[in-house]
User: What shape does this take?
Amino acid sequence: MLTIAQANFAKLDGSPPGSDHGEAKTGHLIKVLMVDAHFLIRDALRGVLKELNNHMIVLEAVDGHQAMQLVSEHADTKLILLELNLPDQDGYALLSQLRERHPGTPVVVFSARQDRESVTRALGLGAAGFISKSGRREIMLSALQLVLAGGTYIPPEILSPKGPSRPKLTSAASKMWQDALDLTERQVDVLQLLMQGKSNRAICRALNLAEPTVKNHVTAILKALGVTNRTEAVIAVRGLGWGSEN
Assistant: This one.
């Protein structure tokens, strides 16, 4: 595998840099930047990326300085995979810089950390996902596919409350959230399922609602919270004390 010292990128199909072999097969190339100081991790991640797209171009950086340089030189980068532990700077600081200077390029944190605080902080800084290095390969693949399709991957540990699964909100707790956020009882039901990581379709099945109705409820919830997506909603509601009302 080519290291960053040898070349700025390599194609996963094995063709040499500068070759049009991959482009001829796919019609376009997806360019991804990996930021991790460890060769073995980058090598393993390359195998995951190859399963997504055999002709993907992978840029490699071993620290924050190289990462900023490469993403500036390759404005068509579609995805950045970022390890938080870097030799030259704090990973969160680099995440903030990347989101500020290249807001159109999603950043997924790919880290050995998996505690709730680290996940919440990364998502709060604008990460499009957080993947644990100890996670199963199929989870990594699904998460990366989701982000490349324009979505956000929120790991189960941030969506699920600590400890055993919580029961349905009591009537008093539901009324409290209705009053606090100016939501209807049904919208609070949707919010509870959203906090559990349920998709719109799963919410439809659970509440026996049509999908357009659920979408309208989710939109109302985001508006009430003053946020624009589910990730921000989860963080905002937990910050308001969700889970402590019973």
Summary: Residues 211-225 form the longest helix (15 residues).
